[in-house]
Specification:
This protein has 255 residues and is an alpha+beta fold. 22% of the residues lie in helices and 31% in strands.
C-alpha cells in the first residue's frame, strides 16, 4: 500500500466515524441504561427520568404529534441521573416524547408517550395497574407483565401503582434494575409510576432521612405538588387523578 492510498483510507474511515457519531450519538458511548420512566403525573406536568452511561445535560422533546416534537424542557446539569420537569401541559392530553441532550435525541419513537391527568375533581373513566410484591424479577413477574400487556391492548391503563416489595431481596439499586427497569421497560416509558415502600425496599432505605436506593430512584410529592396535603416527606404522600384521591402510606419504616 502506498502512503497516499493509506492516507485516503484513513480519511475515509474518519469520515465514516464522524457521520456515525452525528447520526447515532450512542456510537460514542452515550446510551440510556435505565428508563425513561415517568413520575408525578398531574393535569399540567410530569417528570421524566432516565439514566445514561455518560454524564450529559438533559432534554425532553415532546409534542402532541409523534412526527413533530416541537416543544422541549431541559435541565442543564451534567449528570448520568436525568430528571426533567415537563410543565405547561394541557389536561387529559396525550404527548409523544424523546429523551436526550442539547445535541440530539438519544431515544424516542411512537412508543414513547404519556398522558396528563384530568383536572382534579373531573370524573373520568380510570384504569390503574396495581401490583404488589412484584419485585422477584422471575418468570412469575414476567407472566404477570405479559398478561397485563395482552389485556391492556384494548383497554390501556392510565398509570401504575406499586404496593411495596418492589425489588427483592433488599431493594438495592441493582435489584431495582432487574426487577423494575429491565422487567417493564416499555410500560414504564408510557405509564406514570407511583410507588410505596415495602419492608424489602426498606432494607436498604431509611424513611427518616429519605436516603437509600428507593428514595434516590423515585420522585414523589412532598409539598402537595400532585394534590392533597403536603406530607413534607417522600415516605408517604397523596395525589389526585380526576375525582379520585390516592393516599400512599409507609407502614414499614415511618412511625
Amino acid at each position: 500500500m502506498t502512503w497516499s492510498k493509506g492516507l485516503k483510507r484513513m480519511r475515509g474511515l474518519g469520515l465514516i466515524l464522524i457521520l456515525t457519531g452525528l447520526l447515532v450519538p450512542s456510537a460514542w458511548g452515550l446510551a440510556v441504561t435505565r428508563g425513561p420512566y415517568l413520575q408525578q403525573q398531574t393535569y399540567h406536568s410530569i417528570i421524566v427520568r432516565w439514566r445514561t452511561d455518560v454524564a450529559t445535560n438533559s432534554v425532553v422533546r415532546y409534542g402532541t404529534d409523534s412526527t413533530d416534537l416541537n416543544l422541549s424542557s431541559s435541565n442543564g446539569l451534567s449528570t448520568t441521573e436525568h430528571t426533567v420537569l415537563v410543565d405547561g401541559l394541557s389536561p387529559a392530553t396525550q404527548y409523544f416524547y424523546s429523551v436526550g441532550n442539547s445535541s440530539a435525541a438519544i431515544e424516542g419513537d411512537v412508543s414513547y408517550h404519556f398522558s396528563s391527568s384530568p383536572v382534579p375533581g373531573t370524573a373520568a373513566n380510570t384504569r390503574v395497574w396495581v401490583i404488589g410484591d412484584s419485585g422477584t424479577a422471575n418468570s412469575n413477574a414476567r407472566a404477570v407483565r405479559d398478561a397485563f400487556k395482552t389485556w391492556s391492548k384494548s383497554q390501556a391503563a392510565d398509570f401504575m401503582l406499586m404496593l411495596g416489595d418492589n425489588a427483592y431481596d433488599h431493594g438495592t439499586d441493582a435489584e431495582y434494575q432487574s426487577a423494575v427497569f429491565d422487567t417493564y421497560p416499555e410500560l414504564l416509558r408510557q405509564l406514570p409510576l407511583w410507588s410505596t415502600l415495602g419492608n424489602h425496599d426498606g432494607h436498604s432505605a431509611d424513611s427518616e432521612t429519605q436516603a437509600g436506593p428507593y428514595y434516590e430512584i423515585f420522585e414523589l410529592p412532598t409539598a402537595a405538588e400532585a394534590g392533597g396535603l403536603a406530607s413534607f416527606t417522600e415516605a408517604y404522600y397523596s395525589f389526585d387523578y380526576g375525582n379520585i384521591h390516592f393516599v400512599v402510606l409507609d407502614s414499614y419504616d415511618s412511625d
